[in-house]
Amino acid sequence: MPFPPCESFGHCYAGKRITWPQLLGKPAAEAKATIERDLPNVTAVIVPEYYIHSDDFCCNRVFVFVKNNPQRTVSRVPVVG
Description:
The protein is of the alpha+beta class. It has a domain at 21-66: Trypsin Inhibitor V, Chain A, CATH 3.30.10. 14% of the residues lie in helices and 15% in strands. The chain is built from 1 helix and 2 strands. The protein has one helix spanning 28-38; strands at residues 43-48, 61-66. A two-stranded parallel sheet has the order 1-2. The chain is globular and about 40 Å long. It starts with 27 loop residues before the first helix and ends in a 15-residue tail after the last strand. 22% of the residues are buried.
């Protein structure tokens, strides 16, 4: 699964939204579009609910964890990192 190169710097997006609790239960495509509209320098990466990822913190990435259902709904609150 390709990801953008990781960018980590100071306090990511101080004063801007970095979590999206309102996206829980929403379709993956809607969540991705919302996140990338709110923070244009971020790539929202849709991954399965139990995807194992590295612990590196990236200011330009948000994992969108989705359930394995026909709607592919968001299963965890998306967070920058």
